[in-house]
Amino acid sequence: MWLWGSTAAGLVEKKKVVVIGGGVGGSLLAYHIQSFADVVLIDEKEYFEITWASLRAVVEPSFAVRSVINHGDYLSNVKIVVSTAVSITDTEVVTAGGQTFVYDYVVVATGHVESVPKSRTERLSQYEKDFEKVKSANSVLIVGGGPTGVELAGEIAVDFPDKKVILVHRGPKLLEFVGSRASQIALDWLTSKKVEVILNQSVTLNTISDGLIETSSGETIDTDCHFMCTGKAMASSWLRETILKDSLDGRGRLMVDENLRVRGFKNVFAIGDITDIPIKQGYLAQRHALVTAKNLKKLMMGRNKGTMATYKLGYPIALVSLGRREGVAHFPFLTMSGRIPGWIKSRDLFVGKTRKQLGLKPTVT
Ligand SMILES: Cc1cc2nc3c(=O)[nH]c(=O)nc-3n(C[C@H](O)[C@H](O)[C@H](O)COP(=O)(O)OP(=O)(O)OC[C@H]3O[C@@H](n4cnc5c(N)ncnc54)[C@H](O)[C@@H]3O)c2cc1C
């Protein structure tokens, strides 16, 4: 591909950027750089999914029609490769399918390990199956009391008030990364909706099946279906045999500098959950993407390091929905709950906003 430039010949070749991972960070980055770079997006699946809408889709499968978006719908000028990246050398990225893609710049945005279908159609039908599973169950077990487990418990408790919902969490409080007040609000709200919350206990993951299950303290739970909402490993094990092996920290995260370049490399960036930046949230992965888009543009224009955009760690904020109308919000000096945070997040779960960020209409026709 060619770009008008100011060389004697009048044309300069566009730089090749390979983005690995088409999740929250990678998809937004690819969207922003497609106008000035020759971009390849390698993703294990053919679609981008708005993760913060996925729990509503369990109780309302049609919600996923707007939140599961084929990459081709918002990336008009990007080569989309549906495959798993298995290696990075000094010059190219290699996929499981044996394809190689030469790069000038590479961006790793592989987040956490997630086992989801490759095609949008399969993903939508998975939500239908989850919905039927919940609908036909008398009792639903949710394992994990972080934001995902709490939001899913809230969705089921509000939409299916007659189901017995049990939430097991291994820690002493829900929403551990949020403040104590928000944890207590979430606990009180779930309890008011008759969700049974069991703290300080775990369920052995490899022995779990529906029916009678035993927690770490020997308590027995009778359940018809379950959802695992526990933390996932970094999707970085494949990097251990690559040029980036020495840039991984002890937790499998890529160490980055303030410009989001992987330490030790001038042309390799990392964004989102895969980085060693402490807070793992989607809105931050989006910020990483925008900083990296700016930096790629500057580098392509030959600017030096002094002019590059830097990523600054902000205060952690959290907005957790509690069913369709309520929520709990935690800001640095304020925690609020009820209808206002519910109005901000819980109604549309930012789906329209996220679609607009990718140049799409909020609705689908
Ligand atoms: C249910 C749920 C609800 C959430 N709610 C919120 C919320 O309300 N607010 C918020 O801010 N954050 C939320 N998050 C967190 C947010 O989704 C993550 O922080 C965000 O997705 C991280 O973005 P990422 O681009 O780093 O990784 P991801 O979005 O996880 O994307 C990684 C991508 O890389 C692909 N991939 C992985 N390995 C490879 C490989 N080797 N080759 C090719 N492709 C690969 C994956 O298929 C995936 O598409 C939620 C997360 C979940 C799971």
From TrEMBL:
FAD/NAD(P)-binding domain boundaries: 15-287
SUPFAM superfamilies: FAD/NAD(P)-binding domain
Molecular function terms, GO-annotated: electron-transferring-flavoprotein dehydrogenase activity; flavin adenine dinucleotide binding
Residues that span the membrane, as ranges: none
Gene3D superfamilies attached to this UniProt entry: 3.50.50.100
Any one GO CC term of the record: cytoplasm
PANTHER family, A to Z: APOPTOSIS-INDUCING FACTOR 1, FAD_NAD(P)-BINDING DOMAIN-CONTAINING PROTEIN
Function: Putative FAD-dependent oxidoreductase.
Protein name: FAD/NAD(P)-binding domain-containing protein
